[in-house]
C-alpha cells in the first residue's frame, strides 16, 4: 500500500484508579497512536508501550518519537509491498523493519496499515487472522480481568465484585511475601474462579529462599496458572518449576510473558523446557502477524496460549479480542473492556456479557475514534506527508 500521510498522536487518558505492578505504578495512561492514509483509506494503530519504560524498554513517548522520526518517514517514502496471505494479500510494509528493535511502535504502524487495508475490503481483523483455512471466528471469547497489586482485603473485595460482573478468571499480581495469603484468600472468597498469578519476574534467584519452592506454594494456595514468576533470563528455575509441578501431577501452566519477545525467544524458552504457556501480547512481539505466528507455534508445540493486555484503549482491546478468537488461546486472557481502567477513551469499547467479550466483527480493527475525545486529551501531534 502506498501511504501518503501519517499522523501520530500522543494522548494522556485518565485512569479510573492507579494500576500497580512490581515493575511500577501507572497513574495516567499516556499512549501513542498512529493513523495512516493511503489510496485504500485510513487506518489506526495503537502503541501499547506504557507511560514509563518499566515493563519493557519502550515508553509511550519513546513510541511517539519512533513513529514520528523513523516509521512515518520510511512509510511515506518506501511503498513496495509484500503479501502474507496468498488468497488475500494484505501489504505488510517493508518499511516496518526500521523499528524491528522497537516492537511496540512497529506493532502500532502494522496495525494501522492492516486496519486501512481490511476496512477497505470490508473484512474484520479476526476474520483475516483466522485465515481461509481457519475453523471460523467465534462470536465471543471468555473474559478475564487483571488486578494491580493491592492489599489482600481490597483484592478480595474487588475480585468479589468482578465475579458478580461475570468474570470467571482473574489475574492477580503477586510478589515475594505478598503471594500465598493473597491467592488463598481470593480462592476462598470466590470458589471456582480461575486465579492467574502474575509476578512480573519478581521471584529472583538471589533471595534467601528457593524461588521455586516459593512459587510452588502459590500453586498449592489455589493459583490455576503462574505467569512470569522468575526474571525473563532465569530459564533454569522456570524449567525446575515445570518439572516439580509435573512430578506433583499438577496441570498448572507456567506462562511466559516478558521472557518471549520474539520467535527466537520462543524457540529458546521452549527448548529449555522453561514454559508450558505463553502470554501473547501483540505489542511486545512486534505486531499481530508475529502474534499469530507465535500462536501457531504454541499449537504445534503444545504450549497453551493466552492473550495478554497492556492497559490499551478500546482500539488495542479490539485487536486483542480479535487475536484471542484464534483456537490456540485456550487459557483465558486479559480480555476485559478498556473501561476497566480508562476514565476517558476516544474508541468504542468491547462489550462484556455473561462473562464473555464480543469478538469485533466489523470491518478493520475498530471503528474510528471520537475526535472530540481525542482533542480533549491530546498532548502532542505530528503530521508527516509524502513529498
Ligand atoms: O504483566 O501482564 C502484565 C499491564 C501492563 C504491563 C504488563 C502487564 C499488564 C497487565 C494488564 O497485567 C493486563 C490488561 O491489560 O488487562
Ligand atoms: Mg504479565
Defining key terms:
alpha/beta, single chain, 12 helices, 387 residues, globular, four-stranded antiparallel sheet, binds 2-succinylbenzoate, binds magnesium ion
Describe this entry's structure for a reader.
By secondary structure, the chain is α/β, with parallel strands linked by helices. The chain is 35% helix and 21% strand. The strands form three sheets. It has a seven-stranded parallel beta sheet with strand order 5-6-7-8-9-10-11. A hairpin with a 2-residue loop joins strand 12 and strand 13 (356-358). Helix 4 runs parallel beside helix 5 (180-189). The relative contact order is 0.16. The model is unreliable at 82-86 (pLDDT under 50).
Could you say which structural class the secondary elements and strand pairing correspond to? alpha/beta
How many strands in all?
14
pLDDT averaged residue by residue:
93
Strand percent estimate: 15-25%
- For the biggest β-sheet, the strand order reads 5-6-7-8-9-10-11
How many angstroms does the end-to-end distance come to? 16 Å
How do the SSEs run, as a string of H and E? EEEHHHEEHEHEHEHEHEHHEHEEHE
| Low-pLDDT sequence parts | 82-86
Shape descriptor reads globular
